[in-house]
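W.,

You were right to be curious about this one. When I first looked at the sequence I had no strong expectations either way, so I just let the prediction run and decided to look at it fresh. Below is the sequence, 220 residues in total, followed by the output.
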Amino acid sequence: MTKDRTNEEWVSELKSDGVVQASALEDLRQRLRASILFYLSQERSDLGDLSSQELARMADDLAQDATLRIIDNVDNFRGESKFTTWANRIAVRMAISDLRRARYRDFSLDNLTAGGEILPDTSGGTITSVAPPNPETAAERSDVINRINQAMREALTDRQYQALTAVALDGVPMDVVAERMGTNRNALYKLIHDARRKLKSHLEAQGLSTDYVLQLFGRA
C-alpha cells in the first residue's frame, strides 16, 4: 500500500535521495500505473482486443516514463491541486500521446501521391450531416469532390499533396508527418499553408469558392 503524503511531502521526498526518495518514487510509480491502467482498460475502446496482461505491460512502461517526466518537472508543481492529481494528469496525457504516436508508427507517405484520391466518394452523403442528402444534393457533392480531387492533382506538387492529405484529411500528427518527410514542424506548417492557398486559388479560378463548398457540405 502506498503512503499518503501531503503536497509538500511529495515534493520534498522526491527531491531527496537514498531510501526516502526511492520509497516516494515507487509509491508514485504505483499510483501512476493504476491511473494509466484504468485509462487503458476503461476509457480506450480501441484497446479492447488486448489482454489484461498486455494492458498491464503497457501501463508499466507508461508509468515508468511518466515517473521520470514528473521528476524532471517537480519544480513546476505549483500546489493548485493535490500532487497526485497533477501527476496523474501528466501520466494520462503522456499515455494519450504515446498511443497516438503508436497508431502512426508504421505510417508511410509512399501511397500518397498526386495520382491518388484526396477524399472518398460522397454519393451516399457519408461525410456530411446525419440526415442523408437528397439525390440532387448528393450528385452535386459528388461532382464537387471529383473537382477537388482533380484540382489536387493539377495544382499541388507531390510533396504538398502528401502533407495536406496526411495532416488535414487523415489526421496524422504533425510531428509524425514531419519526421517521415524529413523536415521540421515549422517547415511543414508552411508547406501545408502554401498547399491550401494554391488549392483555393485553383478552385476559385474554376468558380468553386470556399463559401460554396462549405455551404454545400453543411446542409442536409
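Here's what jumped out at me. The domain at 135-218 is CATH 1.10.10.10 (Arc Repressor Mutant, subunit A). And, maybe more interesting for your project: Residues 111-130 have pLDDT under 50 and may be disordered.

Coffee later to discuss?

I.
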